[in-house]
Amino acid sequence: MSPQLPTLNLPPADLRTRTEDGRMRILDPLRHTFVALTPEEWVRQNFVSFLHHQKGYPLALMANEVSISMAGMSRRCDTVVYDRNLRPLMIVEYKRPNVKITQRVFEQISRYNHAMHVDYLVVSNGMQHYCCRMDYETSSYTFLDDIPTWQ
Question: What is the enclosing helix (H) or strand (E) of 24?
Answer without folding.
Answer: strand 23-28
